[in-house]
Amino acid sequence: MALAIDPKASRSYVLEDDRELPEAEQTVWYFRNFKAKHSTAIQQAAIQLSGGNGELPPGMLDDVLSLGLTGWDRFFDSDGEEIEFKKERRRLRLFGSQMNVVREGLLDCISGGDRFELAQWLLMEETPGGEADDYEEQTERAAERERDLGN
Hints:
- It contains four helices and five strands, in the order ββααβββαα.
- The protein is 36% helix and 16% strand.
- Helix 2 (58-68) packs across helix 3.
- The two termini are 17 Å apart.
């Protein structure tokens, strides 16, 4: 059964390293679903810019994060001060038009490995709306559905 995607819906994600921490200490990242035109632009860029491997170059991953990231909870700097999430209107290379996205330079506060994990999750996430599911859990549920349909 096909499920409608609400572009205004928010999803959350906790980095793999944070999942072992008590919930009150985990940084929670919030994302929106992409509109169809943005998903199409991402897919086309992945094909054109990847040299055939289907992966976006690192700079483009930041554009994906800038568009999809809508906020966070419990994200602190090295002094223990919570970093304020801000957006601004600016042009992203990947999409070519002025958009309301994460303030320039703010993604620099997120380590490269964490930015990569967040962008990869955002690109791979298949659950429309609601809290994000683990990929392995999605795969297992899909296999269960296939088994159920076969009976």
